[in-house]
Amino acid sequence: MPSIDPQEGDFYATDGYCTHEKVHLEGGLVMGSTIECPKHNGRFDIATGEPVRKPACKALQTYPVKVQNDKVYIQLD
Ligand code: FES
């Protein structure tokens, strides 16, 4: 799930499903550097994947991102 930090213009990539109950974060509310899960309002830090509000308690997997020639590359294992 690539995401943009609107304050910095940086790109980040995380898994797209909440670690609490596997709900897709696509409809989640992005606030600064956090995203809020639409089901139970758990929050994650977009840059690190770490949970910052319960009931989310396990980090999202994050992936390195590189921007080159106006293209965004996500390094998947
Ligand atoms: S499913 Fe995301 S916080 Fe519960």
Describe this structure in words.
This protein has 77 residues and is mainly β. The protein has a single domain (2-67), classed as Rieske Iron-sulfur Protein (3-layer Sandwich). It is built from no helices and nine strands. It has strands at residues 2-5, 10-14, 29-31, 34-36, 43-45, 51-53, 62-63, 65-68, 71-74. The two termini are 15 Å apart. The mean pLDDT is 89. Bound molecules: FE2/S2 (inorganic) cluster. Residues 18, 20-21, 23, 37, 39-40, 42, 55-56 line the site of FE2/S2 (inorganic) cluster. Residues 18, 20-21, 23, 37, 39-40, 42, 55-56 line the site of FE2/S2 (inorganic) cluster (FES).
What would you report as the Rg, rounded to the nearest angstrom? 12 Å
Strands of the widest sheet, in order across it, are 3-4-5-6
Order of helices and strands: EEEEEEEEE
CATH superfamily: Rieske [2Fe-2S] iron-sulphur domain
Shape category: elongated
**What would the CATH topology be?**
Rieske Iron-sulfur Protein
Averaged pLDDT: 89
Q: Total number of β-strand segments? A: 9
